[in-house]
Amino acid sequence: MAKVLALLFSFLILASVAFSVVLGGVGYDRLSEEKAKNAQKGMYGQGSLRTSQCPGECTRRCSKTQYHKPCMFFCQKCCRKCLCVPPGFYGNKHVCSCYNNWKTKRGGPKCP
């Protein structure tokens, strides 16, 4: 009887691990697919935010940089002008053309 219970318990653990791996992959694909759709719908493009949403979006955008204060300063400046902040912590500037095209006097990127 103990062997049967141990076998059943082992099967349940194995099944739950396999099930979570399968569902985890589906959830990830669905999430990345949803982000792609949002980018296509203009959820990240110019004018997609209100000025009241800029601090929260810039906090997210600048959360992983070691230069937090300058990142926040310029991100909020860019967000107020463009009303958008690209997704992710860096890159993806092509999603928000205003954010991407605003340059410094020296020709470097103004927005983080």
UniProtKB/TrEMBL annotation:
Pfam family membership, one: GASA
Membrane-spanning parts: none
Q: Which residues form the signal peptide?
A: 1-20
- Work out whether the entry's keyword set contains Thylakoid: no
Task: List the InterPro entries hit by this protein, alphabetically.
Answer: GASA
Task: Respond yes or no to whether keyword Transcription regulation is given for this record.
Answer: no
Which keywords label this protein?
Answer: Signal
Task: State the family named in the UniProt similarity comment for this chain.
Answer: Belongs to the GASA family.
Q: What is this protein called?
A: Gibberellin-regulated family protein
Q: Which organism is it from?
A: Rhynchospora pubera
